[in-house]
Amino acid sequence: MRKYRNAQMAELAAELTAGLARLKRGYLDAAEAMLRIIEPDREYPYEFVVYRLTGYRPRPHGPGEPMSAEDLRADLLNLMLDVCDSAELRPGDFAEPVYDTKALSRRFRVSSKTIQRWRRRGLAARRLIFPNGKRRVAFLESSVRWFVQRRPRQVARSMQFKQMTDAERGEILRRARRMARAAHCSLSEVARRLADRTGRAVETIRYTIRNHDAQHPDRAVFPDLTGPLADEERGKIYQAFLHGASVPMLARRYRRTRSSIYRIINEMRARQLLERPIDYMYNPEFDLPDADDTILGGTDSPLENPPGRGLPKAPASLPPYLRDLYEVPLLTAEQERGLFRRYNYLKHKADHLRRKINMNRVNSTLLKQIERLLLRANAVKNRIVRANLRLVVSIAKKHVGGPQTLFELVSDGNMSLMRAVEKFDYSRGNRFSTYASWAIIRNFARSVPREQHRMERFSTGHEEVLDIASALSTYDPNEVNIAELRESIDVVLTQLLPTERKVLIDHYGLDPDIPPRTFEQMGRYLGMSKERVRQIESRALKKLREILHPQQADLLA
After folding, report:
1. pLDDT tens column, 218-228
2. What's the confidence (pLDDT) of residue 352?
3. What does the alpha-carbon distance between residue 263 and residue 279 come to, in Å, rounded to a whole number?
4. How far apart are the C-alpha atoms of 341 and 282, rounded to whole Å?
5. Is the whole model's pTM more than 0.70, yes or no?
6. 265 within 8 A of 251, measured Cβ to Cβ
7. What secondary structure does DSSP assign to 24-78, as a single string?
């Protein structure tokens, strides 16, 4: 069975192919007759199609989606071939001339590829058993005549097409070589320009160049396309894409097709996902059929202080950036369990989907699903961390007096807190504060006697970028996990347009080799006003917030 666009048509095809052999010839004739009455801008209900093919009205199965003319035409053409494959039909069974693909090509003096294009545009085909015993695609004289009458211009244009001569081929290759070397054009750009000048199809030009390069690698027009790129070059392409370079720009720079650049970018994304460790605490409830509705479907309440208890007052001795932590309410036991359950389930889903990645054929939609699940999990983790940072401060204050300052102790404790979130098993019924306190104290017992060390800092200090990276305002600029932040930023930047990525990267200094730029500086670089640059940044930030907040239940604004 072939692949059908409409599921009901696939079921109908299965029923007809399993039916009586004496009726199948009638099904074919009815399907071709229906092909001839389909109007481009109309939709057709399934019941109408069944009645036209079989002569009886099916029982109603509820309101189904009507089929567009394009989908119905494609499914009817497939249905005819499937019915033929299930029957023993021969050219002699029809009282009119029958052509196979080669015979029809000779009749109209066109290529077999042209016949294939005609089939996609509505030329009805059947698969018949020819005298040599093999099944081949065949066309009835009446089918061909109807198609020619409906598309006379297309048929006439195809018949006027001439095979490319050696002189024409040589001239195309000469021009292509000059454009590739002098103007550094990509294959796609060369094919498009030469198609405009010669009147040939773009695919014809591209095929001619590729075929020449494959047969003559020593004289290839695009020698770089004859072999795969090294891992180093692929990495450079991916990093350039993350830093704002557009796909057309990368295609010109590396003299590759746009499709190959997209493929490289997706392969690098897939490789990073496969190499990235996804650790979580598994729970059998994650595999239940209703896990999505049970764990992710509810509305998570915002962080609120328990009834009857006000927010504690921050000690006066704390610096301003630590006093803000006392404005964040603690988690109740129910909130804590719900967040840990959600956090681990999101990572479980991401890890499960990751197993479906096929490096031989990377699915960009699958990659985006995995990346968004990990971003949502990271946002939930940040929410838990934010609510427990006060615990880190209280423990750190007890260890002040050694070589490390309070700020360094808090930074070190925050790292322990983040690791504790990943290792905590919520299903045991214990409170996270007990487990986290033990982890932080044990880490201080090892680290405080050592020589003081510096944690990596995020260089820009812009709160907006930190909000984007974590999907919440949960990271203090002085307490950021730089590796996790960089990874989060790289993931979300792939969702933006090249100009939007470039504006965010340059304005906030995300590229370590380029200092932050003002709107005016970026406007001069991009050839637009600074107000336009500000609008692009605002649009990019809004887009990222929509990406990072798929469900308010998962993220806290």
Report:
1. 888 887 665 66
2. 92
3. 28
4. 10
5. no
6. no
7. HHHHHHHHHHHHTT--TT-EE-HHHHHHHHHSSPPPP-S-PPPEEHHHHHHHHHH
